[in-house]
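Severity: low
Component: inverse-folding endpoint
Summary: output formatting inconsistent between runs
Steps to reproduce: submit the following structure tokens with default settings.
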């Protein structure tokens, strides 16, 4: 089951990387051009390490909260699995672009988290050295993206903080190829990931996995 979680998290990040190029690609590119004294490849790597670090920290935090409550209450544990299944269905619909099923989550994340964290921007700009690049990546890892926060909700069912962090690391690794590529290569990858058949295929995977999670959770609820 853990292996399926990790693989699905990677696929979620991969298919969502087309969205990442829109939301974060411009930021990453501008950072590479921010200073003549910084090497572009180091800037790109550090930015993505910072972003992945925030994902992992958030995953560990959410998993800790989820596992703590789940150990005390079996019903709560089953409810988390049901919630994970529902969100897999929402992700599938979102990836297929059949509906804007995660827009509301982005709005909630923006109000609850991002509008407060964005104030830290003033301490990182201008991005003139490598530590600031890393910090900037960590900050923008909290950008209100529906797929990121869906993955975080998914980590509620993780057995431990380490498992939650690992799930989010796999998600981050899925986004890395698109974020490291530049120019024509990134455009080609984006076109491939946004092709109708590709989106339908990946979306179907999430929907079937969501149904699987719901069946497992319902069976435990009944028995």
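Observed output (run 2 of 3):
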């Amino acid at each position: 089951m853990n292996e399926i979680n990790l693989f699905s998290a990677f696929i979620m990040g991969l298919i969502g990387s087309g969205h990442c190029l829109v939301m974060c690609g411009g930021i990453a590119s501008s950072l590479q051009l921010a200073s003549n004294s910084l090497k572009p490849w180091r800037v790109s790597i550090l930015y993505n390490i910072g972003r992945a670090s925030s994902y992992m920290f958030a995953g560990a935090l959410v998993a800790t909260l989820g596992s703590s409550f789940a150990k005390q209450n079996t019903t709560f544990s089953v409810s988390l699995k049901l919630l994970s299944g529902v969100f897999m269905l929402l992700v599938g619909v979102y990836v297929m672009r059949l509906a804007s099923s995660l827009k509301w989550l982005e709005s909630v994340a923006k109000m609850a988290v991002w509008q407060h964290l964005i104030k830290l921007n003033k301490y990182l700009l201008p991005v003139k050295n490598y530590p600031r690049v890393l910090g900037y990546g960590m900050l923008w890892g909290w950008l209100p993206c529906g797929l990121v926060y869906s993955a975080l909700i998914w980590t509620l069912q993780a057995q431990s903080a380490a498992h939650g962090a690992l799930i989010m690391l796999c998600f981050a690794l899925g986004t890395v190829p698109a974020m490291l590529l530049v120019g024509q290569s990134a455009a080609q990858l984006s076109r491939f990931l946004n092709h109708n058949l590709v989106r339908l295929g990946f979306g179907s995977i999430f929907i079937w996995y969501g149904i699987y999670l719901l069946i497992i959770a319902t069976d435990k609820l009944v028995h």
